[in-house]
Amino acid sequence: MISSFDLNKLRSLLRDFHQMTGMRITIFDDTLHEIVSYPEEIAPICKFIRQNKAAADACRVCDVEACRHASRTQQPYVYRCHAGLTEAAAPVFLGGIPIAFLLFGHLFSYPSKEEGWDMIRTCCLSYDLDVEKLHDLVKALPVTEKEYILSASHILQAVASYLCMDRMVMLHRQELPARIDEYISTHFTEDLTSASICAQFGIGRTQLYKIARQNYGCGIADRIRQLRIDLAKELLTGDDPPPLSEIAAKCGFSDYNYFITVFKRLAGMPPGKYRRQNGG
Fold first, then answer.
1. Fewer CB within 10 Å, N side or C side of the chain?
2. What is the DSSP code (8-state) at residue 74?
3. Where are the domains of the chain?
4. CA dihedral 171, 177, 178, 180 (to 10 degrees)
5. How many Å from the N-terminal Cα to the C-terminal Cα in the chain?
6. Are 143 and 108 in contact (CB under 8 A)?
7. What is the pLDDT of residues 22-45, one digit of tens each?
8. Architecture of domain 188-277 in CATH?
């Protein structure tokens, strides 16, 4: 979740996007709660449609589904909302983890006003809205070409990248990998498991797996084994190295035979041979 950010700088960036494209842009955090928008006031047609509770609920569902789709594809997603208007969502990623989402929308993108009005009226039939008022709001919308929307979505993706590069958004999750790495480096000789690490940091296995893959290129268990074997190598080549059974215990291996197996697999030779070849 976004814990702190330069709100003024964010608003300035969103204002620039709006002035360039004429589109309202919103930033959501990774839990899909709105952080900031520009302009703050929603479009008149959306404000009118959202007066209906079912329509307002559908708007929220639409935003969530769009963000999830953009997160899965890791690309900007241009789509038509429940009310027949065109919108776009782009994810902000830190490594492989989505940390925020940018959305713009409320656009009229149809070949003609008549075709667009027919579609929007059909989409909004179940909301029991004043049809004449809705029609007036639709007529006031400028026609936005599909190519223009696609270009704006590419700019939106660049904005998303800039948010990470410039570190305007300071994240709890940005700090989490370093905290987990420090914890593992301190406790790897203990009875350390994925479950115990998840409990320590209050995260799920899926998130821990993503962090491990992003930072180590392997699973947590593999990382712990590698740290243990690296320590074993140091002990084997130090002055007056202890017996292998003691080294195994010092490195967190309760099973001596398992220690031998893991060491041979990762070092390419048994620990005794490694000690002889490296002057222990």
1. N
2. T
3. 2-171, 188-277
4. 130
5. 49
6. yes
7. 899 998 887 788 888 999 899 999
8. Orthogonal Bundle (1.10)
